[in-house]
Amino acid sequence: MMKIANLLSRRTIGQWLHLMSIGVLVAISTSAQTVSIDYDGDVGFLQYKTYSWIECGRPENSKLNHKLVIERIEEHLAARVLRKVDLSEADLYVAYGGAIEDCVWDDCDYLGSGGCGRFTDEEATLAVKMIEARTKKIIWQARTVYTLSDKAEKNQRRIDKAVQRIFKKYPPQKN
Description:
The structure is a single chain. This protein is of the alpha/beta class. It has a single domain, classed as Double Stranded RNA Binding Domain (2-Layer Sandwich), CATH 3.30.160. The protein has three helices and six strands, in the order H-E-E-H-E-E-E-E-H. It has helices spanning about 1-30, 65-80, 150-165, and strands at about 35-40, 50-55, 85, 90-110, 115-130, 140-145. Strand 2, helix 2 (about 65-80) and strand 3 form a beta-alpha-beta unit. It starts with a helix and ends in an 8-residue tail after the last helix. Residues about 5-30 have low confidence and may be disordered.
């Protein structure tokens, strides 16, 4: 009888620890989806009215993703009253870049059933830069990381969310 109680107790503890480890992984992955922003605090961002795209490196995984990122960034710029113009007329140059990296992690249930698994996620980094056309200096940049999915519609939502997070604090407020 005592062996069964110990086994049940260990299994329950193992399941609890497994759930706790999943919670920690979720918390880590959620906190890893932060946005890092850097900008020139001496710049008055409201003076800029026009922008033009310049090329920057990006992953070659999908032309559809490229098109979607461009569309979402343009929507956010338009909402901030920035108008797209030819390169020679622009106050700002806008570029985005990205990278895709495989993230491998192990998940083991040491106290429960004893199984282990190796999982691979693809993490995408999205970075946006704004360069003052007159001085050719970077005046604002932001970067975020998100996990890619096998499903196109999930990736679209994740790109939407990533671009939204990037532009949440643009233009920056003067202190």
